[in-house]
């Protein structure tokens, strides 16, 4: 039941034509929970196997443990903690978390509630007089970008500059040497370098200066474990900027799309704003912003569902498929904001559980509640909407709606 | 009437009594209603007031952060029960299906759940236990009293017993900058639960935080002043220490005394039951209508050679309560076995300690991930070459993996390296001070000759 060669389904999923609805293909993929690919990599698609691997200490996040090197490995730069294993991962994540969450900074996310509400309301105020609104460009993109800039201490007006780099980096995430022009990869590598230069420049100005933003606080931290090196701070800021930028936009947009497709739920949310907490969890299961962890490495031989994955193999984790696994969730293709026992994989699991998850939750809760309250009988212009290219960070590139 | 009809009638109109209205009792009551039981439900508890959560009593309540009254357990659903609180049960009549209460009342039932839990083991000299400033910590009144005593700024606190509760209380004292002495008969803190290697780490943690830790000694005498206030403790090595608060943290006593004449297999180790939480009689026969859950249940675990194990763990109480409740209203074929691998957590000296499995069921232990000197690591426990438990210090996110190793009887020591594995890790003997799963002394005697008349009698009735 486990190992067979099923390259076709994966390639169909990665193909742009599947972007609007990859879920039937995930169901096909789940028939082989651990699927060895022609190139020797393994694709994991079922909930139990995914959670088992995400908690397995033999699964490495460090590309240097792959027996065949990744095409886009950056030489000589410090990886950010998302691409590291313990103990380095743990140390860097702890040093970053000191300024973002409990136990050292417990109130930060909740304390941003008024600011988030004000940003959201400002953006919706600007809808006035518009016949047609693009939920992505007019709302779901500018909102988290404003928030992450504020939080990190990156000037909001620089957004046009770093947006180009971030796009190129995200674009190169799913680089396939067999299909894609080498240019796609080179652009990504160059963009990473440009973004590092830019963040390094910002960091230089922060040493010895007071300030509440993360860059300044990381630059001047004197905690018991010492300070991150400048290289480490740049890598961390790089990660937080990209992740804070490119994921929440999909979650909010997927949320609005899902609500427009489920008008009874939309109406219920108008009447019961508290429903939003469970609704966002269900959204993280049903239409998550991150569909795939494109690679992990087997640090040792790993046995999953009776298949032994040899040391050094590349492993692809299909998180969005796991969250729709009927062996774990009743009626998984139904969007049910009342769902109990909803331990989705929307933020991953284990030590790499999404660092910014608490912020993304709150942003999405505030955003969707404000949208349903303030839009007047919104309608989708096109269903499905056009999608971004990436199968990894999946979401609409535009979501046009009209209101009365 | 078919048995299905009988079950339906019981679910509709039956009478269930739950003796013990704490975590396990409340969760069982909620689960019974969730399972569709609409009959009468009686909750019997010796404490006055609503069920509350105990883990915070040795942690957040003692720091003063959460008031003792602020730990009431959240209600997951309305249970529509009759509450008989403030009076303990003092007997169970299996012939007539009645619970006797200490005030003479009788509660009839069709099925009963016993979840009477554990009480704190008091100081062995009653007059010394009664001194002002001598505490145990089990109820919220205890925790409230100790919190006030700590807030008054004692010159020194003596903690007697360095198990989890004692160590947590010592940690709180240091957090509040109160001088504290910890006295432990074993060679190190936590050693009875986690073995010598972890005990050494726990010793280092306590000493690094300024605890005056004295191991291998016994407190022999608590001395009071003329006003009846605790002032000084005497140790078995002849030394003394002046302190004005003493916390007796010597573990618990299972509340089974009230079942002494019930004919159930109840004793100091708990009440024996099957994995479906049905109680056993003293003869070892299974009962149909008597169920057990929580700290007081002594349940066989197939993973651990079907040994009867009782656990004083929060998660165990919750899971067992749900299984017991389900089985109370289900036909034989639909019953669930309680097979969860135990988990446990503690917070002390800034370290999150978490375990999975039964660490006392082991002969060797090995550090598999992280660094012991940094107090960030995972240690796996093995018995006869298979993984039986794991303990993490500030590394809890990995334990799910070790749970799977335990469930699949994976080889010990785990053969494959991890990115964070110590290079020189070798299994060492686990070294517990006493055999944890073996009773000392006889608990029963068997009488009779003919198979129809062979019977078991509890040994306590012969003493």
TrEMBL record, chain A:
* Compositional bias ranges of the Basic and acidic residues kind: 324-342
Q: Which residues form the signal peptide?
A: none
Gene Ontology molecular function: heme binding; iron ion binding; monooxygenase activity; oxidoreductase activity, acting on paired donors, with incorporation or reduction of molecular oxygen
Which parts of the chain are coiled coil?
A: none
Q: Which Pfam families match?
A: p450
User: So what family is this one in?
Assistant: Belongs to the cytochrome P450 family.
The name this protein goes by in its record: Cytochrome P450
Q: Which organism is it from?
A: Streptomyces caniferus
Automatic annotation (TrEMBL), chain B:
InterPro entries in the record, alphabetically?
A: FAD-oxidoreductase/Apoptosis, FAD/NAD-bd_sf, FAD/NAD-binding_dom, FAD/NAD-linked_Rdtase_dimer_sf, Reductase_C
User: Where in the numbering of this chain does the Reductase C-terminal domain appear?
Assistant: 344-413
Which Gene Ontology CC terms are recorded?
cytoplasm
Ranges for the FAD/NAD(P)-binding domain?
15-321
Membrane-spanning segments: none
> What cofactor(s) does the depicted protein rely on?
FAD
Q: Which GO terms describe its molecular function?
A: oxidoreductase activity, acting on NAD(P)H
Alphabetical UniProt keywords: FAD, Flavoprotein, Oxidoreductase
Q: What is this protein called?
A: Pyridine nucleotide-disulfide oxidoreductase
The gene for this chain is: hcaD_4
């Amino acid at each position: 039941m486990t190992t067979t060669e099923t390259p076709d389904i994966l390639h169909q999923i990665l193909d742009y034509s599947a972007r609007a609805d990859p879920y039937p293909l995930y169901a096909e993929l789940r028939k082989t929970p651990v699927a060895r690919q022609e190139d020797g990599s393994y694709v994991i698609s079922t909930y139990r196997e995914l959670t088992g691997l995400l908690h397995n200490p033999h699964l490495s996040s460090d590309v240097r443990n792959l027996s065949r090197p990744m095409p886009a490995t950056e030489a000589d730069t410090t990886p950010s903690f998302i691409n590291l294993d313990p103990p380095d991962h743990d140390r860097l994540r702890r040093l970053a978390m000191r300024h973002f969450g409990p136990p050292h900074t417990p109130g930060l996310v909740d304390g941003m509630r008024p600011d988030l509400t004000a940003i959201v309301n400002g953006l919706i105020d600007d809808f006035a007089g518009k016949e047609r609104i693009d939920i992505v460009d007019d709302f779901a993109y500018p909102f988290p970008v404003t928030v992450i800039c504020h939080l990190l201490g990156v000037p909001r007006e620089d957004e046009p500059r770093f947006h180009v780099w971030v796009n190129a980096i995200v674009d190169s995430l799913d680089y396939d040497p067999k299909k894609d022009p080498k240019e796609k990869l080179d652009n990504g590598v160059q963009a990473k370098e440009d973004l590092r230069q830019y963040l390094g420049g910002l960091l230089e100005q922060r040493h010895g200066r007071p300030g509440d933003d993360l860059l300044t606080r990381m630059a001047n931290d004197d905690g018991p474990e010492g300070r991150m090196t400048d290289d480490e701070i740049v890598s961390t800021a790089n990660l937080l900027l990209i992740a804070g930028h490119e994921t929440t936009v999909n979650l909010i947009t997927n949320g609005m799309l899902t609500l427009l497709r489920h008008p009874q739920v939309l109406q219920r949310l108008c009447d019961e704003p508290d429903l939003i907490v469970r609704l966002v969890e269900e959204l993280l299961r049903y239409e998550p912003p991150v569909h795939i962890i494109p690679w992990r490495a087997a640090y040792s031989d790993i046995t999953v569902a009776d298949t032994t994955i040899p040391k050094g193999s590349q492993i692809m984790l299909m998180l969005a498929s796991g969250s729709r696994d009927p062996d774990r969730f009743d009626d998984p293709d139904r969007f049910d904001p009342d769902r109990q026992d909803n331990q989705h994989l929307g933020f991953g699991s284990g030590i790499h559980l999404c660092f910014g998850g608490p912020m993304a939750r709150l942003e999405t809760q505030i955003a969707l509640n404000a949208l349903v309250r303030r839009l007047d009988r919104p309608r989708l212009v096109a269903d499905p909407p056009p999608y971004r290219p990436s199968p990894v960070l999946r979401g609409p590139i535009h979501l046009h709606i009209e209101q009365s | 009437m078919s048995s299905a009809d009988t079950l339906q009638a019981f679910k509709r109109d039956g009478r269930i009594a739950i003796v013990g209205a704490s975590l396990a009792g409340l969760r069982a009551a909620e689960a019974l209603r969730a399972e569709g039981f609409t009959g009468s439900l009686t909750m019997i508890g010796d404490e006055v007031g609503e069920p509350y959560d105990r883990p915070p009593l040795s942690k957040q309540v003692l720091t003063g952060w959460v008031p003792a009254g602020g730990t009431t357990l959240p209600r997951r659903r309305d249970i529509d029960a009759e509450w008989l609180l403030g009076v303990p049960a003092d007997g169970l009549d299996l012939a007539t299906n009645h619970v006797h209460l200490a005030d003479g009342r009788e509660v009839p039932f069709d099925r009963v759940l016993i979840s009477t839990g554990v009480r704190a083991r008091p100081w062995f000299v009653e007059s010394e236990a009664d001194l002002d400033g001598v505490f145990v910590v089990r109820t919220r009144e205890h925790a409230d009293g100790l919190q006030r005593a700590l807030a008054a700024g004692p010159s020194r606190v003596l903690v007697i017993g360095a198990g989890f509760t004692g160590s947590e209380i010592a940690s709180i004292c240091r957090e509040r900058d109160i001088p504290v002495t910890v006295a432990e008969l074993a060679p190190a803190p936590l050693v009875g639960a986690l073995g010598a290697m972890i005990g050494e780490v726990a010793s280092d943690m306590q000493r690094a935080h300024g605890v005056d830790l004295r191991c291998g000694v016994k407190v022999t005498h608590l001395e009071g002043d003329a006003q009846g206030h605790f002032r000084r403790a005497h140790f078995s090595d002849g030394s003394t220490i002046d302190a004005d608060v003493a916390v007796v943290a010597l573990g618990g006593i299972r509340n089974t005394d009230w079942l002494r004449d019930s004919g159930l297999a109840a004793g100091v180790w708990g009440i024996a039951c099957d994995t479906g939480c049905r109680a056993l009689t003293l003869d070892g026969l299974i009962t149909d209508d008597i169920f057990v859950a929580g700290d007081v249940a002594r349940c066989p675990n197939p993973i651990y050679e079907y040994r009867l194990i009782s656990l004083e763990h929060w998660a165990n109480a919750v899971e067992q309560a749900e299984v017991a409740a389900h089985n109370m209203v289900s036909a034989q074929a639909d019953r669930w076995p309680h097979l969860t691998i135990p988990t446990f957590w503690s917070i002390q000296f800034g370290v999150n300690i978490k375990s999975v499995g039964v660490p006392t069921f082991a002969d060797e232990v090995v550090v598999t991930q992280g660094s012991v000197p940094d107090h960030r690591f995972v240690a796996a426990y093995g018995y006869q070459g298979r993984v039986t438990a794991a303990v993490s210090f500030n590394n809890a996110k990995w334990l799910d993996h070790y749970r799977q190793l335990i469930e699949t009887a994976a080889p010990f020591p785990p053969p494959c390296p991890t990115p964070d594995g110590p290079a020189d890790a070798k299994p060492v003997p686990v070294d517990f001070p006493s055999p944890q799963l073996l009773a000392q002394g006889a608990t029963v005697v068997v009488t009779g000759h003919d198979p129809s008349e062979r019977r078991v009698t509890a040994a306590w009735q012969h003493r």
